[in-house]
Amino acid sequence: MIDWPLTIFEVWHYTVNTIGIFSNALLICLCIFKTPRVIRSYAVLMLNFAISDFGACITDLFVGQRLIPAGIALAYISNGPCKYISGTACYVGYSLMLHFFAHSLWSLLLSFAYRYYILFHSSPSRTTLMLIICIIYTPSFFQWITFLIANDDQTKVETYLRDRFPDYDFDNKTITGTLNILESWQAMFTILHMTLPVTPVYCTILVLRKKIIKELASVAGTMAKMSHATKNMHKQLLRALTIQACLPFFFSVAVASYAIGQLGIYNSPILEYLTFSSLLFIPVISPLISIYFVRPYRTTVVLWYYHFRAAKIRSIIKPPTTTTNFFDGESGPKKSMFWNGTEYQSAARSNHSQQSHHY
């Protein structure tokens, strides 16, 4: 019998993670090699975001985690390639994945704070931004290290799950988890760090977005003769802010689906798969926003695309390496075709036209 929730979950995760890995790898390359001087400071933030999202996609693809909240216990079924290694490998990968998602949330807040700051001050140096990134990364790094020791015996966790969910299929599953999250401060810290900041961070981002839009509108109002290019730049920035401000919503969906099960309100495989399926929107959408709305990056990608198409066309339509004679054995000028980069031309026709001018 086909497990449809698992099948849909796997198709979704493999597809979305593949897109996310490619998009973030592309953004990393653009940040390193194609960043103009005027946005090098902000590129540090985009690079930080891209690395974090790239790690989230890689680890999510590796573990393919299903989250099962069960009273005071919290268990996980790993459906990714890690299950062919060991349960410990799955748990380490899961811990790493959580810390990437947590850091992404703080990085998003930092991005909005930076945009608001530079409206009134000069852009901070790249060294200063890297120091700030290290500071906001500290809680996520601490979460990753401490959560590694919150894993209980797999056999005991599986026995607990079978008693609590007799209708679930746990045969041949890679199961890890914590039997009592109330007695494990490492697990509790991870839960609180992954859930509590979401609402205040989301509200702060919305407030910053409103202030940024208000300031941009006031600047536009005082500059009646603003150039068309500047007006377009403001419009692009407002669109980018609007889309990026929606990203924490997916954190909220993940937290809600987890809380419903952990509080015992309702347990369902759909909710258990939804937790991390909804989070995947963030590391996939975020790099696409940066690539599209940062014009030098968008221009570079477009140029690469046309170079790729041109190379593909040239590989299909290969130019002849030798001349082709159409009247072998006959007297008179021989017609030969040659490639001049854009079209085929007849040498004999060219000679004939030159001769006709002499008559």
Question: What can you tell me about this protein's structure?
Answer:
The structure is a single chain. This protein has 359 residues and is mostly helical. The protein folds into two domains: 4-307, Rhodopsin 7-helix transmembrane proteins (Rhopdopsin 7-helix transmembrane proteins, Up-down Bundle); 322-358, no CATH class. It is 68% helix and 6% strand. The protein is built from 13 helices and five strands. The strands form two sheets. The chain has a three-stranded antiparallel sheet, with helices on both faces. It has a two-stranded antiparallel sheet with strand order 4-5. Helix 7 packs antiparallel against helix 8 (228-244), helix 7 packs antiparallel against helix 9 (248-262) and helix 9 packs antiparallel against helix 10. The chain is globular and about 70 Å long.
Provide key terms for this protein.
single chain, 359 residues, mainly alpha, Rhopdopsin 7-helix transmembrane proteins, two-stranded antiparallel sheet, 5 strands, 6% strand, disordered C terminus
